[in-house]
Here is the input.
Amino acid sequence: MKERERRVLLTSLPSISTEVLQKLTFDLKVNAPLAVPFDYSRLPTQVPAYIEVNGSLISIYERKTRVLLKLANKAVGKEEEEINKPISIYIQWSSGSTYNNMGRPPCCDKLGVKKGPWTPEEDITLVSYIQDHGPGNWRAIPTTTGLKRCSKSCRLRWTNYLRPGIKRGNFTDYEEKLIIHLQALLGNRWAAIAAYLPERTDNDIKNYWNTHLRKKISKAQELSNYESNSKGQWERRLQTDINMAKQALSDALSLEKPICDSTESKNSSGYSSAIYASSAENISKLLKGWVKKCSVSNTSDQACSASSTGGTTTTTSFATNLLPEASETSLFYGESKPSIEVSTPFSMLETWLFDESTVDQQLGQDDLLDVSLVDTYHDLF
DNA sequence: AAAATTACCAACCGCCATACG
DNA sequence: CCGTATGGCGGTTGGTAATTT
Here is the structure.
């Protein structure tokens, strides 16, 4: 590190949030012991490349606790067994430094708009503004704050990284299964999926899908190809369910079409709402709530399409949200964004994915979702 | 030990829907 | 009604770290 313009000791390592950044800005050079181990996943990723442990300067590039602790121990010459003793940790960076060199480098500087990784100073500026004015009105941020970033970049930085409540680090088994379920249900509609994982951003979910789950599933599919018997059984069952679901949905929609017609606009395939569900009963049950909601509102367009514009932080009931979402995209047949096609052999996935005991266990310790959602989730599968 | 490959993920791009004048 | 600006979303990129060869 060339300079130590900023230096702060955090008594804990919180997620990157308003108060942290404020602390970094206004409450520098505080000295107090930090108990370790701490949850390094709560440290903002790729922040300050250097950390000071009991007077020794070390660099960090990883956000995993064990890595940091290893480095910390190395720096203070302790063995891992002793890491539970309180030590002092400083986090620091130079004012001109960037978080790291990851991500796409600035490719063009048109009109003085900066691109590429955000600096800590930019983050502070952005968060300070949002603290005062709240999120939204992104176009005002560059002009008001002097940030040389486009409004789009500001919004992205906030929603994907800076806003409080973002959970980072490894996905739990429960989250993983939920993502797979929702992906099968909703397709690659990451924002909609993220609505059911409030602590995860759509970008994170998308990345996780692309880097982990997609491969996992395709591997499982390959293996499943060897299990022709169980495969046939499962597919027949699924096919039956889908046919029944389609029929139920078709009936219901034909009754309510004048009210909720707008939701059909995207569906020319004939399967406006092929829902992934275990029975037509579930479909009907969910549909009932949705149709009711549509009927209550005179402005049917709003009622029926409201959830499709849902952001990542809004929490709506599964039943009211699910169907409008699902109705826009055919999930198994003939759509431009097929997810796990109906032809997917699920036999291998089935035991792993539908292992409800795991979900139940996780639910007890990991209160990610409200009960109603999980109930419905269980109903569905 | 070095080279090659893979994994990761922040941040970009382009498209679309909506708001606004 | 029309054109433009903006917000939101999904797909993609590409530099570095980690892992494998």
In short: Confidence is low (pLDDT under 50) at residues 1-110, 252-350, 354-381 of chain A. Residues 61-62, 100-105, 136, 138-139, 151-152, 155, 159, 188-191, 202-203, 206, 210, 309, 311, 337 of chain A lie near DNA strand C (CB under 10 Å from a C1'). The CA atoms of residues 257 and 264 of chain A lie 9 Å apart. The two ends of chain A are 53 Å apart (CA to CA).
